[in-house]
Write a structure and sequence with these properties.
By secondary structure, the chain is α+β, with helices and mostly antiparallel strands. A hairpin with a 2-residue loop joins strand 2 (18-26) and strand 3. It has two domains: 1-38, no CATH class; 42-72. The chain contains two helices and three strands. It is elongated, with a radius of gyration of 29 Å.
Length: 86
């Protein structure tokens, strides 16, 4: 991990097309601006982690539903015992 010290209005360049700028610093909060091309996806880590967890939970529930369906016993449709005796 690269660790840098930056002051307000200073920037960090990533490649030629991504700029991270320190907009303000107050108490324990740093506001940053990120200038990047539209095809670059930028997420807050805590939200991305929550989405991943939701996908995992949905997948597990889906797997359980399929397992429940596999345990169903289907009744065969056919002639009744009375009809077989005739």
């Amino acid at each position: 991990m690269l660790i840098l010290k930056r002051k307000t209005n200073e920037e960090i360049k990533i490649n030629k097309n991504i700029t991270v700028k320190i907009l303000s610093i107050s108490d324990n909060q740093v506001k940053i601006g990120i200038d990047a091309p539209g095809n670059v996806q930028i997420y807050r880590a805590e939200l991305l982690d929550r989405v991943k967890e939701n996908i995992k939970m949905a997948s597990e529930k889906s797997r359980e539903s399929v397992k429940d369906l596999n345990n169903l016993v289907l009744n065969k449709i056919g002639k009744s015992e009375d009809e077989h005796k005739k």
